Amino acid sequence: MTRRTALRRSMTEFSKSSARTTETEQSTKEDQDPTMIMAWQPQEEGLRQILQILKESQSPDTATQRAVQQKLEEFNKFPDFNNYLIFVLTKLTTEDEPTRSLSGLILKNNVKAHYEKFLPEVAEFIKQECLSSVGDQSPLIRATVGILITTIASKGDLMTWPELLPALCSMLDSQDYNVCEGAFGALQKICEDSTEYLDSDALNRPLNVLIPKFLQFFRHSSAKIRSHAVACVNQFIINRAQALMVNIDSFIENLFHLATDEDADVRKNVCRALVMLLEVRMDRLLPHMHNIIEYMLQRTQDNDEGVALEACEFWLSLAEQPICKEVLSQHLGRLVPVLVKGMKYSEIDIILLKGDVEEDEMVPDKDEDIKPRFHKSRTHTVRHTEETENGEDDGDDDDGIGEDGSLSDWNLRKCSAAALDCLANVFREELLPVLVPILKEMLFHQEWDIKESGILALGAIAEGCMQGMIPHLSELIPYLIGCLSDKKALVRAITCWTLSRYSHWVVAQPHDNYLKPLMTELLKRVLDPNKRVQEAACSGLATLEEEACTELVPYLGFILETLVFAFSKYQHKNLLILYDAIGTLADSVGHHLNKPDYINLLMPPLIQKWNILKDEDKDLFPLLECLSSVATALQSGFLPYCEPVYRRCVSLVEQTLNQHIANTQSPEQFDAPDKDFMIVALDLLSGLAEGLDGHIEKLVVNSNMMNLLYQCMQDPTPEVRQSSFALLGDLTKACFQHVHPCISEFVPILGQNLNPEMISVCNNATWAIGEISVKLGEETRPYVPLVLTQLIMIINKPNTPKTLLENTAITIGRLGYVCPHDVAPMLQQFVRQWCMSLRNIRDNEEKDSAFRGMCQMITVNPGGIVPDFIFFCDAVASWVNPKDDLKEMFTKILHGFKNQVGEENWKRFSDQFPQQLHERLSTMYGV
C-alpha cells in the first residue's frame, strides 16, 4: 500500500468515526470544515508541561537531555501533542523566540519520523497554522516555519497539499515585507528539496508559473528578497529545467543587472549561477565571455570571502571546458596573481589552525577532530606495461590543498590552489612565464605566510607544468628539502606535500643527489613535535613510497625504525595515518619486507594495537587495511600471526551479518550494522589468502568461511559484494578444494553481478569467474551460458573503464582456454575489442592464460578472426617474452594465415602495419 492510499484511508476512517458521534449527522462535510479544525485550543496543563520540557531541552546537562528524550517519546503517544508544538511556534508570542523555534524543530523531527501516523485533523491544523504564520514578525520564526513547510511537503510529495504553492505564490505579492520574505524563504527550501518534482507533470509543472514569477523579483528593493529569488532559480540550472531554458535569456540579462549588487548574498548567488551556466548553457554565455571573465576576476578578490569563494569556483569549472584555453589565454597575466594571492592563509585560518602553536604532540586529539575515513575496497587490477597508468589515478594526492586536517571545509585557499592545479593541466608550460617570477619573489619572502603560499603554489602546478619545471628542479628540490626544517610548522607541513608532488622526478635521479637527503629529512618530520607536520610527513612519505617502490629497499631498516618509533609518539588521529604509511610501504616493497629483523620490528606494535582494539572500534578499519597489505607482503613471514587475525576477521563478518539479519527482522529493536567492519575484514582475509597462499587452507577448513562468503556475495551493499568477490577469487587461487563444492551456488551469483553500472563489483565478479574457470577446467561448460553474453556486452560497451575491459578480456580468454568449443563461435563479436584491451598489459600469468585461450578459439573457428586479424597481430606483438610453447602457438597461427592468403595478399596486408609492428613480427615470428 502506498503512503498516499494509507493517508486517504486514515482520512476516511477518521470521517467515519466522526460521523458516528451523532446519528443525525449524515454528511461528513462538516468534519472537514476548517472552522472545526481551527476550534482546537490547548489545555492549560498540557501547555505548561510542554513549555517545561522545551526549557529543559536547552540544558547542556546530558542526564537532563536523556530525560527530555524519554518525555518526548511519551508525549508522542498523545495525538494532539503536535498541535501543542505548532501552537507554541506560531501563536505563543509571550514566549522567547528560541523556545518557540525549538518547538517547531521538534515538530519538524516528528513530521520526518511519524507524519504518516498523524491524525488528518492534526495534519490539517499544522498546515493551516504554518500558512498563517509564514509572515511572522520574527525572522527566526519565519525561517522555522519555512523548514516545517518544506518537511511536510517532502513527506507528502506536495500532492497532498495542493493549496501550498498557490498560497505561497500569492503571498509573494503581499505589501507586507515579512509575508513576502517568509513566503520566499519557504519557497527557496521547497525548491532545494523538491527540485525534480516541481518540474514534473505530476503537479502540472508549477515551474512554468514560478520561474517567470521569481525573475520579476530580481529587481526588488530588498536585498534579502533579491537573494531568495536568484537562489530559487539557481536550483533548476543543473537539471536544465524546461521552464528555465525557455526563459534563459531573461535570466542571464537579469543576472548581469545584479552583477554589482551591494549585497554579498546576492553577489554570491550571481556567481553561483554563472558557474552552473558554464556547465549547462555555455552557448548563451560565450558572447559575453570577455565581460564575465572580467567580472569574475573582480569577484575573486571580493572583500566578502564567501563571494570570492563562489567566484573562484568559476576558474575550476572553466578549466574543464574545451574553450578554456581560447577564452582565458589573454587573461592569464591577471588571473594567476589573483589565484596565488588567494592561496595565502587568512588570519581566521591561522587562528583556527593554531598556526602559532609549534609543539603540540603531547596534546590528545578530540574525537570530533578526526574525520571519518572511507575504506577503499579491494579491486583486482592488471599490471600495465607503463609504470604509471594515466587517467586512472585516484586523485588522492590533493593533501596540500586539503592539508588543513580538521579545517576540512572548502575555502578560498583550497579553491584557489585547486583552480591553479587545473589550469596548469590546461596551459602546461604556458603558465610558467607568468608564474615563475611570482614564485621567485614568494619563495624567498621574509613573511612566513607568503613563503608558505608560494610553496603551496609550487605543489599545485607540479602535475600540469612538470616538463617546464624540470630545468628548475635541481635548484628547487634542495631548497625545499631545506624548508623541511623551517621554524614555522605550517611551512614544514606544506613542504612535505609539495615535495611529494615532485617525487616521480626525485626517484628518477641518482639517489645520492635528492632521494637520500629527502628520505632523511622527511623521516625527521615524521617524528616532528607538531601534529600537523607529522600528518603531512606521513602522507608525503606514503606518496614517495608509491612512486619509489623497490627503490626503497636499501632504506627499509631506517624507514621501519622511524615508523615504529612514531607508534609510541603519535596521538590518536595521526596513528590512523601512520597505518596508511606502513600499509603503503608494504604494498611498495612487497616480499622484501619478509626478513626476520623487519618482522620483529614491525609486527609487535601492530599486534599490540590489534589486541587492544575492541570489535566495535572504528580504528580497526585502518589497522585491518594496514595488516592486509603487510600480510600480502610478508607471505610466509606472516604465518606466526595468521590464526588469531583470521579468526577475528571471520568473527567480524559473522557479527555484522547477524546484526544485519536482526535489524531486517526487527528494525525498531536492533540498529543497522556498520558494514565497513565486514568489508575491511573481507579485504584482510583476501590479503591473508594472497599472502599465505596454500597455508590458509588449514584455517578455512576449521571455519564456516564458505557459508559466510555465500551470504556476503548476496548482500545489498555493493562494497560488501565487491570485497566478497575479491576474496572468492583469492581463495580460488589458494585453496580451491574448499571452493569447489560451492561452485554451483556461487557462479550464478557472479553472473547476476556482471553489471557494468557497478564498475568495481562487476570488475571483481569478472575476475573471480576467470580464476574459477582456470581451476575448474572443462567442468566450467555448464556455467558458460550464465556469463558469456554479459561479458561480451561489457567488452563492447563504449566508455567502459580500462581496468574492467582488461579483466573482462582476460576472463573471456580464460573461458575460451577451458571451453574453446563453447566460446569460439562468438569470436567475431568480441575479438577486436579483446585484442585492443590486452595490448597494454604486462606479460604475466593472467595474460598468458588469456592468450592461450584466444589461440585455442582461433584454431576452432579460424573464420572468426579473419576480418580483425591485424588487431590480433598487434596484440601478439605486445608480448615481450612469451613462454616457448605460447610463442609457438602464435607462430603457427601467423604462418597459417600467411599461407592461407598467399604471399601476394600477405604482402598487401602487412604493408598496412606500422613500421614497429612490421619489425617486431618479422624478428620474433619470422613473418
Low-confidence stretches: 1-37, 385-407
Number of helices: 51
The largest pleated sheet is described as:
none
Overall body shape? globular
Strand content: under 5%
**What's the total count of β strands?**
0
Nearest-angstrom radius of gyration? 33 Å
Label the structural class: mainly alpha
Biased composition (Polar residues): 12-21
Organism: Laodelphax striatellus (Small brown planthopper)
Domain Importin N-terminal: 68-151
Region (Disordered): 1-33, 363-403
Walk me through the topology.
Elements: H1 3-19, H2 34-38, H3 44-56, H4 62-75, H5 81-90, H6 97-114, H7 120-132, H8 139-155, H9 164-171, H10 177-193, H11 195-198, H12 207-216, H13 223-234, H14 242-246, H15 248-257, H16 264-280, H17 282-285, H18 289-299, H19 305-319, H20 324-328, H21 332-342, H22 347-352, H23 412-427, H24 432-443, H25 448-460, H26 466-483, H27 489-501, H28 503-508, H29 515-526, H30 531-548, H31 556-569, H32 572-589, H33 596-612, H34 620-634, H35 639-665, H36 676-692, H37 697-701, H38 705-712, H39 718-734, H40 736-739, H41 743-752, H42 759-776, H43 784-796, H44 802-818, H45 820-823, H46 827-838, H47 845-860, H48 869-877, H49 884-901, H50 903-910, H51 915-925
GO molecular function, one term: small GTPase binding
GO cellular component, one term: cytoplasm
Organism: Laodelphax striatellus
Task: Report what the structure shows.
The structure is a single chain. With 927 residues, this protein is mainly alpha-helical. Helix content is 68%, strand content 0%. The chain is built from 51 helices and no strands. Helix 49 packs across helix 50. The longest helix has 27 residues. The N terminus is likely disordered.
